[in-house]
Amino acid sequence: ESRAANASNKEINIQWYIPPLAKPSIYTETKVLLLYAYNTKPVKISNIKTFSSMSIFSGHLWIPLARIISLREKLSNLKQQVEMLMQNSKSLSSASESISFLEQSETLKIISSKNPKMNVEKVHLDEKTEEMAKRCLSEVKALLSVVPALSLPLTEIPFDVTLQSIASLEDMFDPANGCIITEESLFNWIISLFH
Fold it and tell me: Distance between CA 143 and CA 67 in Å, rounded?
C-alpha cells in the first residue's frame, strides 16, 4: 500500500521548498518554506473524495535559509558528540566486564541480532553536551515557534535524547531533503511548537 495513503500512529512529514524565482533584494535574506503535515492517529485513505479526518494537520513556515544551514551544522556537531558519548559508554562497560574476547564477540552478535536499532536507547549526556543540546534545541524552538521573539531559551531538554532523535532533527533541517519523524517524545515536542 502507498505511504501517501497510510500513516502510522503519530508521524510528522517535513518537506522544504526553495522558490526558484524568488530573488531576494539586498535588504532581505533568502527564506525557504517549511511544509509540514502530521497525524495524531493512524490514517488510512481509501477514497480521497470522501476522506476527512480530525487527526491530520498541516501548515507552513517561512524560515531564513542562513539560520537553517547554521542550525543543521550545529545539530551535526551535536550528533557527533552523542555518538562519541555512546562509544565511550560502550567501551567503558565492555572494559569493566571480565569476559573473554570470544564470549564478548558472541554477546555482541546476539545483542545486534535482537536489537537492530541500537541508536534508540537514551543517551546520558555530560554537562558540555547537555548545554550544546539546549542551545541547539532553543534555536529549533525559536525557528518553529509561531512567535519566535517570545521563545525563551530552554532550561531542560524536552524529549529523550537518543542518537535517532538527534539524527531526525538533523535530517529535518536539511533543505535538500525531507524527513518523517515518528519518535514519540520528539514528535510531541515538535508539534507543540507548531501551535
Answer: 8
Task: Please tell me the pTM assigned to this model.
Answer: 0.76
Residue 126: alpha-carbon gap to chain centroid: 20
Q: Could you tell me which residues come within 8 angstroms of residue 44 by beta carbon, excluding any fewer than 6 positions away?
A: 5, 6
pLDDT tens digits along 158-182:
998 999 999 999 999 999 998 999 9
Q: For 81-108, b where at least 16 C-beta lie within 10 A, e where not — what string?
A: bbeebbeeeeeeeeeeeeeeeeeeeeee
pLDDT for the residue 104:
46
pLDDT beyond 70 at 145: yes
The per-residue b/e assignment along 63-72, b for 16 or more CB within 10 angstroms, e otherwise, is beeebbeebb
Grid cell in block for residue 175: 533543505
Comparing C-alpha atoms, which of 6, 78, 103 is closest to residue 46? 6
Greater model confidence, 146 or 104: 146
CB 11 within 8 A of CB 191: no
Cell of 123: 543517551
Q: Which three cell numbers stand for residue 49?
A: 473524495
Given a contact cutoff of 8 angstroms between Cβ atoms, the answer to whether 9 and 176 are in contact is: no
* pLDDT greater than 80 at residue 105: no
